[in-house]
Design a protein that fits this description.
Elements: E1 7-15, H1 19-22, H2 24-27, H3 29-32, E2 38-41, E3 48-52, E4 58-67, E5 71-76, E6 90-99, E7 102-112, H4 115-136
Antiparallel strand pairs: 1-7, 2-3, 3-4, 4-5, 5-6, 6-7
């Protein structure tokens, strides 16, 4: 890749719930915490998106688009000074596609600066989308094992 090229990852999961049920898990801090980290969320264009995986791993950006119950877009990056993905430097788009009584949750994370950062974020999003699949269907995803894991990116 040249210095100006970026890469994207795409992941999806099928959740046994309708988009109207899942959407609040992307915008309500209490529901967000059931599958991901503790969050400060102001779900409106320009509003803050901040998620704490652990005390050392905090992602920050801002909401770009909020279209209930179909789609959320926010910028993303890590607050750590040594991160190659600075706050707000990449974009995450989550689309909820109805599929009968289920929903296909599609996540696209764009503008990642390298294949290495894309690979790390792909692993993180796989981890968290599986937790969303459980929580969104009304289950308990349990404590996040990455909350205590230094260096976990998602």
């Amino acid at each position: 890749m040249t210095p100006t090229e970026t890469t994207a990852i795409e992941r999806e999961v099928r959740v046994r719930a309708r988009p109207e049920t899942i959407f609040p898990f992307l915008t309500d801090p209490e529901l967000f915490a059931r599958w991901s980290g503790r969050a400060t969320l102001d779900p409106r264009p320009g509003g803050i998106f901040r998620m704490e995986v652990s005390a050392e791993r905090i992602a920050r950006g801002e909401f770009v688009a909020v279209d209930p119950p179909n789609r959320v877009v926010f910028t993303w990056g890590w607050e750590a000074a040594d991160s190659p993905v600075a706050p707000g430097s990449s974009t995450v788009e989550i689309t909820l596609v109805p599929d009968g009584e289920h929903t296909i949750v599609r996540l696209v994370h764009r503008d990642l600066p390298s294949e290495e950062s894309a690979d790390a974020h792909a692993l993180g999003w796989e981890h968290y989308l599986e937790r969303l699949r459980i929580a969104g269907a009304g289950g308990d995803a349990g404590p996040d094992p990455w909350a205590q894991r230094p260096g976990a990116e998602g």
